[in-house]
């Protein structure tokens, strides 16, 4: 074997290992996509995300037109350290735009005081033109809402507190 062929095989093995590690992170964090760039090489790992039938098909087309509802009261903005570390905090599993309702003029999925069931949709995060339903990880009562409709969210950002 020549040095060039051996180098390509080594790079292929490194790429394969990196892809496997990215896939593990994707699954463990519940992400729909992850991308890294290093040493001039970019690798993107993605999986198909199924949009629940509870969302109107019009939402995908209307998503760019969604805006915060002017009559809706603003959620609590005090996302302090106590709220971030609260055991009932639901954090964003991805970067995207948060939508509190299934379509522009519909009521929000939940309000402060709403009783939710495990698996119930509490929010939609649009990422890469895909609507990702964020479900309640456990049953409880919504105590705090820390995200505004139509606003961007970051990975790990606190969204709700459910007790």
Give a description of the structure.
The chain has 163 residues and is of the alpha+beta class. The chain folds into two domains: 3-46, no CATH class; 58-162, RNA polymerase II/Efflux pump adaptor protein, barrel-sandwich hybrid domain (OB fold (Dihydrolipoamide Acetyltransferase, E2P), Beta Barrel). Helices cover 23% and strands 29% of the residues. It has three helices and ten strands. The protein has a four-stranded antiparallel sheet with strand order 3-10-8-5. It has a four-stranded antiparallel sheet with strand order 7-6-4-9, with no helix packed on it. A two-stranded antiparallel sheet has the order 1-2. Strand 6 (121-127) and strand 7 form a beta hairpin. The longest helix is centred in the first third of the chain and has 27 residues, at 3-29. The chain starts with a helix and ends with a strand. The relative contact order is 0.18.
């Amino acid at each position: 074997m020549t040095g060039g062929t051996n180098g390509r095989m080594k790079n292929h093995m490194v790429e394969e290992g990196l892809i496997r590690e990215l896939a593990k992170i994707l699954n463990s964090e519940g992400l729909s996509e992850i991308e890294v760039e290093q040493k001039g090489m970019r690798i993107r790992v993605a999986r198909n995300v199924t949009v629940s039938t509870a969302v109107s098909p019009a939402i995908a087309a209307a998503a760019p037109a969604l805006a915060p509802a002017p009559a809706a009261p603003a959620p609590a903005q005090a996302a302090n350290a106590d709220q971030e570390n609260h055991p009932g905090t639901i954090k964003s599993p991805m970067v995207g735009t948060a939508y509190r309702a299934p379509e522009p003029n519909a009521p929000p999925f939940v309000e402060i005081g709403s009783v939710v069931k495990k698996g119930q949709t509490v929010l939609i995060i649009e990422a890469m033109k895909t609507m990702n339903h964020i479900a309640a990880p456990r049953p409880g009562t919504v105590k705090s809402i820390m995200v505004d409709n139509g606003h961007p969210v970051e990975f790990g950002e606190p969204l709700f507190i459910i007790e």
